[in-house]
Please model this.
Amino acid sequence: MRDILTEIWSTAQRNKLRTALTGFAVAWGIFMLIFLLGCGNGLINAQMNNMNRFLDNSMMVGGGRTSKAHEGLQEGRRIELDDGDITTTGRRFSNNVESVGAQLEQNGVTFSYGDNYFSGGLLGVYPNEFEISKVKLRAGRFINPTDLTLQRKCLVMNEAQAKELLPRSPLSLIGKHVNVSGIAFQVVGITKEDKSRFQSNVYCPFTTLRTMYNKGDKAENIIFTFHGLETEQANEDFEKAYTARINTNHKAAPDDESAIWIWNRFTQNLQMNKGISIIHTALWIIGIFTLLSGIVGVSNIMLITVKERTREFGIRKAIGATPASILRLIIIESVIITTFFGYIGMLLGIAANQYMDATAGQMKVDSGLFEATMFADPTVGIDVCVEATLVMILAGTLAGLIPARKAANIRPIEALRAE
Model:
């Protein structure tokens, strides 16, 4: 074996250009496959992270404007949701609806503690807001049912807001009373800041805000979780039935889709997952064709290599070499070259993905609603890297095997005549 390796090294040195071209074809094919899949995975992972801001099986409903005249009422009426709609959601659709809540917002509220203050929005919520919006607590607790029933004056704010009021130790704000437009509220929880407009408001009990600002029985949004709606069709049927029922509450046409709007996170995720699946498939197709281009390059070079060495094989056979020894030499040479350069291509692909993760992977863009990540973990599994390298090795071996069998079986006199 040592003699064979020495001979292969000697042959590679005599044919540096040919060996370099073979190695480049192998390394380039594997590098591009790993790099492209890494880019795709980075985009897909980032999208998945950005999507994962709300509970999948949840909906948000808000009032809109009617687009049709109905029961003597003109189109263009503003629809405002109320307690009747909250009750309808929980009772009429109890087969699918689980927890029901609502939101009510008051902007331009001043929050102060001592000499420090900031202005922002106050969002009245139900306890299910914690689950649906995936609120992450830093300290304390979230709004609970008792707060809602007793209309307690309590707040949950994010860490950045707490720092505005108590810069040195924001978490110490828990249990202290903050002035909210002249009324004392107790801070019961502090959440992690996610730089999202969805969680930029200060939370308080829904009933407290409604009473404090005399909102009557109104609700800006209704939010609820659901179960049993596993397909797009099932969700579409539910939305139609739900829209018709809520529209009836407000004397709007049952089929008027503009009277209310529904944000269904489940169907949104289904559509996003379809898009991600298409992107993933497209990247694999492009990567495979890139790998095939490398395989074709290796195959062509191996064919030329064997043909050029036909005379050499004739001399070997003339001095006693067996066809099997010649065949073994070519196969081992092919395997060593493709393995070595394939490994280099794999390392370069992994290094490129790591560099991309360290640069573009840390870049964030303000989408207007939240701070979105461009790339997240743009890497490829080691199994894919190894499989791609093995495919290239196998292709190089097969490309050299067919002409090598012919050269190994040729008569020495005919091989010596070859140019």
In short: The longest strand covers residues 97-113. The two ends are 30 Å apart (CA to CA). The chain has a mean pLDDT of 83. The first helix runs from residue 2 to 14.
